[in-house]
Write a structure and sequence with these properties.
- It comes from Propionivibrio dicarboxylicus.
- GO terms for molecular function: ATP hydrolysis activity.
- The protein is an alpha/beta fold.
- It has two domains: about 150 residues, P-loop containing nucleotide triphosphate hydrolases (Rossmann fold, 3-Layer(aba) Sandwich); about 70 residues.
- Helix content is about 50%, strand content about 15%.
- It contains ten helices and seven strands.
- Helix 3 crosses helix 4, helix 8 crosses helix 9 and helix 8 crosses helix 10.
- It is elongated and about 70 Å long.
Length: about 250
């Protein structure tokens, strides 16, 4: 499989949200929220953006405190993480003012504990430095953030990551696979995966193994009886069934 990043419709929408935040009118509205169900590629997309834009990418954990957030941020920034919380805050503030480095926070749901203490600390930084902050979480985070008016008002864009469309799956096959994948197999991948990108990539790997043996475009009939992907929700393998006559 090719080692490339595919800009599907979710990434295009995400980039539009980031551009909106960067051209904001209210300078304190520096946040972008990415949300959606598992399997839609949130982490992969924001990680790619972080690398391309020299952002610091942190993954929140259960029990995260403001001080733990600051220590992890300092470690990623390569600055001294010791001393009092106030001293650490001042050092980080100077770093962010001087560099303008964007922040990417994955698993934002864990930042909402203790009356959103971690998000309030991040707001302290972003309000003072106008730093772009991108958060990612699941659907449950929307109403939780909405309860905190001062935080919610800082979002310039909210981007929903959706399950991959048929066009997205076709694009993934075209740009990732090292063999040609026929339209009927692309449609099967889309149907069986439910649009979950991880499952589509698993199916592409199967198609590649078949294509290396057959030497041509891989169609649905070439994969009959093979496990195309594993459905983690039903705990069942998705096996390609024999085609009906005339299909």
């Amino acid at each position: 499989m090719k080692d490339v990043f595919v800009k599907t419709s979710n990434y295009v929408a995400f980039e539009a949200g980031v551009n909106k935040a960067m051209s904001r009118g209210a300078m304190e509205a520096t946040n972008v929220l990415v949300y959606g169900p598992p399997g839609t590629g949130k982490t992969e997309n924001i990680d790619h953006w972080a690398v391309q834009n020299d952002a610091i990418h942190l993954r929140a954990n259960e029990g995260w405190t403001p001080r733990q957030f600051m220590r992890e941020l300092a470690t990623k920034a390569g600055i001294d993480s010791t001393g009092s919380s106030q001293a650490l805050f001042e050092r980080l503030l100077g770093y962010m003012v001087g560099t303008g480095t964007p922040l990417v926070i994955d698993e934002v749901n864990f930042c909402l504990a203790d009356n959103a203490a971690v998000m309030e600390k991040i707001r302290d930084f972003s309000d003072r430095t106008e730093t772009l902050v991108i958060y990612a979480g699941d659907e449950r985070v929307i109403p939780k953030i909405g309860r905190h008016t001062q935080i919610a008002s800082r979002f310039a864009a909210v981007v929903e990551f959706k399950m991959a469309t048929l066009a997205d799956v076709r694009q993934l096959c075209d740009e990732l696979a090292e063999v040609r994948i026929a339209d009927d197999l692309v449609a099967e991948m889309h149907h069986k995966s439910g649009g979950r990108v991880r499952s589509v990539i698993d199916a592409i790997a199967v198609a590649e193994r078949v294509g290396r043996k057959t030497g041509g475009a891989v169609s649905l009939s070439d994969c009959v009886g093979m496990e195309l992907m594993f459905d983690w929700q039903t705990r069942r393998s998705s096996v390609v069934k024999p085609l009906r006559k005339g299909v």
